[in-house]
Amino acid sequence: MSGEGGKGSSGKLDTGDKGLPRFICDNMLGSLARWLRFLGYDTMYPEAMDDTKILKLARSEGRFLITRDIELSERAGADGMLVTSKVLEEQLEQVKGALHLDLEDGGLLSRCSLCNTPLEKACRDELRGKVPDAVLARHDDFWRCPGCSRVYWPGSHYESILRKLGALEKK
Question: For the whole prediction, is pTM greater than 0.90?
Fold first, then answer.
């Protein structure tokens, strides 16, 4: 659907196990995919593939396709949307508005921004040698990605993400 959000062929957005929509972003929307993950939405971002393959993947996994490709969005029909802006904040606003997403529903900062795996709480002791000692001393909360082993903590990057999302929520 050109510029609009969508409902799957069933008339509503397909949802995952938490009742939240699941997305797949094409290779032109890597930043948007990462930010949807920050919001806690299960968002695939596969390597570049032809339109037929990405449509097949989206449909086989019950994912809503988000693309900047006009032809691909038309082929996806009600199971996809066209993002018209090249600017990340505008993309987030468009997706949020078109799909009526609540930015707090997904489980803010609950997924790995790199591989999309849900994060798990991590103990400080198990992280010794994996993160700088100064970080261990300054923070109490840590999360680890079981998919790629990346470690997260509420540092300055975390605060920056929260500020950006707070500004988006006010719009």
Answer: no
